[in-house]
């Protein structure tokens, strides 16, 4: 397969790149991110807002969320409160908690 063709392969499942959440919280957060990105397709700000508000309600305040493509990050976060995942190709979601 040509290199260019390999780059165009898009996965439609959530790909968790890095996670420091307890398993039950991880599953809930991944499902939430997928549904928010599907519901707000093309509106990354709306998806991030929905994810943040839902995480704040379910698991307590001080969650921060970035949704987009082609970004890097370095954040300070509470221990065991970070999720970095990809969904629908190159759409990335980073969610972390800090007070």
UniProtKB/TrEMBL annotation:
GO cellular component: axoneme; dynein complex; microtubule
Protein name per the record: Dynein light chain
Species per Swiss-Prot/TrEMBL record: Artemia franciscana (Brine shrimp)
Keywords: Cell projection, Cilium, Cytoplasm, Cytoskeleton, Dynein, Microtubule, Motor protein
Subunit structure as annotated in this protein's UniProt entry: Consists of at least two heavy chains and a number of intermediate and light chains.
Principal subcellular localisation of the protein: cytoplasm
GO biological process, alphabetically ordered: microtubule-based process
Family that this chain belongs to: Belongs to the dynein light chain family.
CDD domains: DLC-like_DNAL4 (cd21453)
UniProt keyword annotation of Cytoplasm present: yes
């Amino acid at each position: 397969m040509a290199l260019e063709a390999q780059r165009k392969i898009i996965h439609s499942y959530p790909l968790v790149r890095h996670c420091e959440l307890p398993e039950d919280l991880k599953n809930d957060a991944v499902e939430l991110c997928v549904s928010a990105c599907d519901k707000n397709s093309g509106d990354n700000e709306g998806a991030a807002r929905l994810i943040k508000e839902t995480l704040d309600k379910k698991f307590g305040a001080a969650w921060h969320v970035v949704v987009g493509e082609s970004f890097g990050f370095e954040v300070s976060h509470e221990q065991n409160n970070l999720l970095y995942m990809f969904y629908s190709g190159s759409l990335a979601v980073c969610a972390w908690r800090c007070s």
